[in-house]
Amino acid sequence: YNKTVEIKKSNKEFFKEIWKKAGWDESQEVWRIEFQLRREFLTSMSTTSMPDFSQTVNDIWRYCTNDWLRLVIDNGTENRSRWPTDELWQGIQDIRFGDGSFTGITRSVDKSRLPDDKQIYLNGIGIIISYALKNGHKEIWKATDRFLSDAIRFLDDYTKRSPIYRDSKDYIKKKMDVKRARFNIKPE
Question: For residue 37, which of 61, 54, 55 has the smallest C-alpha distance?
C-alpha cells in the first residue's frame, strides 16, 4: 500500500524524516509491500532457520513477487498469464537483499490435494449420524453396517434408472475417476 497516502490519514509525519535520512526525495511515493510467510511455506522453500532465510531470502522474494502475486496491465487478451507486468511491480520484483544472490531453491509443493483425515472422518461420521437418526438407530456404530448395505441397495436401484450410469460399479468407477483428478492422483 502507498505509505505516503497512509501517513496523511494516520498523521505519522515522523516517517518523512526517517525516509529523508535514507535518501527519500519528497516528490517520490513510498510503497510498503509485505508478505506473511508461515512455517509450512518456509519449509517448502527449504528454510527452517534464520541462517537458511538469509541465504534464501532472494528466492523467497522472487516467488512472492513473481509466482504468488503479480501486478499486471490488462492488454485485452483472454489469457491473463500473458498480460504484461506493471512497470512499478517490475521494480519491486527486481529488489535484492544482502549480496543479491539466488540459491536456485524453488518451492516444493505436495500436489496430491488429498483431503485431511479430520475432513474425511468428521464428514463421514456426520453422514452416519444422520442416517442413524433418520432410521431410528440409537447407537451409530451399530448403524454403520446397516448404512453400508442400504447404500449398496440404494445405489443399485439408482443406477438402474439412471441414463448416465450402466450399474453401481460404473457409478463408483466414474466417481473415483473424478476424485482422482481432483486429488491429483494418477489413474490406475
Answer: 61
